[in-house]
Amino acid sequence: MARGRPRKTDPDAALESITKVFWEQGYEGASLGDLTAASGMAKPGLYATFGDKEAMFAKALTHYYCDMGAKLMEDLVSSPDPLPDVMRRFFVSVVEMARDPDCPSGCFVVNSLVESGSMPPGLIALSRDFDRRRRDAFRKRFRAAHDAGELPPGTDPDAMADFFASQVLAIAVMVRADTEFDTVMRTIDVALSVLPGRPVPDRPA
Question: Are 124 and 151 in contact (CB under 8 A)?
């Protein structure tokens, strides 16, 4: 009986695999051998499907943002819940995602921003664009909260949004550095205390 054709690798599964490689090792750290091994594809097939290393990284980062970030952004912008509840849920979700044992640590977008000095200009621009989109989502939420009276008169919603968007970067780096969970959560508590009517909760020493 003639041998059948080899089973082709699912491109979606391959993209998921190379995303985790870039997420964990960064653009410079990920070798072609790492990518071919993770994807289950030979080099010609990998290049034919995803392009060169720069194109692979761009597809991986876009996949991460659209797959893992989209739900968080949608809840941040559209949830009818009070602003403090939405903010806490967002930050706790960021920590849970970053600590997921099935995923590399930290936030892939933040990791790429940290590494941007060693990446091609196109990838630097892409990383900054995703960071800008996140900041824009925070601004949209805080402007809506301001218009709804959730923030005191005279509050600058854009300044508040920029502050909280920056906390995402700080928290993601803390998790990447394997900071103790309680320390990360205390940082979130202090950040949320900036919101009206949200005192810093007491936590065990």
Answer: no
